[in-house]
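Hi support team,

I'm opening this ticket because the web form for multi-chain structure prediction keeps timing out on my end. I have pasted the exact lines I submitted so you can reproduce it. The total is 353 residues across two entries, so I didn't expect it to be a heavy job. Is there a limit I'm missing, or should I split the entries? Thanks in advance, R.K.
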Amino acid sequence: MTALLELFLVFLKIGAFSFGGGYAVLALIQKEVIENSGWISPKEFIDIVAIAEMTPGPIAVNSSTFVGYKAGAVAGSAVATLGVVLIPITISLIVSVYYNKFKHLNQVNRIIKGIRPAVLGLIAAACIKIAWASIVDIKGIIIALLTFIGVWKLKINPIIAILASGVLGVVFYGVI
Amino acid sequence: MLMDIFLTFFKIGSFTIGGGYAMLPIIQREVVDNKKWLGEEEFLDSIAVTNSLPGPLAINCATFVGYKTAGYAGAAAAALGAVLPSFLIILVIAVFFASFRENPIVEHIFSGIRPAVVALIAYALFKLVKSMGVNPLNISFSIAVLLLILLFNFHPIVTIVICGALGLFLYRKEEKQ
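Hello R.K., no limit was hit. The queue was backed up. Here is the completed structure from your submission:
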């Protein structure tokens, strides 16, 4: 029971600060879940991010459900998912109710203006940490470069890019 | 009505891979064009507001649309509908993941996928930097956060709070000038 409560509180905290959507939450999960709690390993985390990329729904919700399951089975996944969305839903509701007042709040706009560039720093940090754990040799560098060029210049759909990199993985690590 | 809201967002949540901005045109089509729960302008306003709040954009947007359509119960129905599909899908995957992860071929596949995930995140970052409109002040915020986390092991939340406070302070001065 205390384990579930801890899981809930950790994800409540992650949800409360998940500004900038999507990838910024990765930095929070890295800190809270991998470094502080040890519920999953860095490699497992990257696998979860990969699966989240290929399945419907926000990355924050997908990864919370997954980590919650690893830490506390079905009850854990429910608790973690509820935790991560509770504060965002509550704040969104408050803003919807008092919408016309919020619209012109200068202070809020200035805070957001400060947080936006911070989110880029968070994503960059998460990206470097993930790269450190997942690009282990020259083959990995090649796959990463091909993927980047593929989604940037050739406008390949990210899901296709992930599937193609899985094929490359089998070829590079299984066949060669 | 509530059931309709729930099912609409359940459907949106079930078919939008990639999250965030990929969801917006689909939400717009369903909510503005098909169901006519919100006007075009009201919808765009809702994006502008919910985009700056913490939490996944799609869920924040669902809460907003749900409230505008049917009050508190509508917000709850919409949020639940938006969260439930990804929760159920990931739960099923998580249950079976441990058993096939041991397979050597699956391990090879993921050895290839992990570097690709790095590239996808790097590309998302690249697009965000372009859309932010870089100036010396905001890019120094970004670099400071990066260094504080990587070199000094700062908690991400601490860096968010510091940057929010700095924004409140610095941009006030800018407005006065």
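A quick check on our side: DSSP finds seven helices and no strands in chain B. Let us know if the file doesn't open in your viewer.
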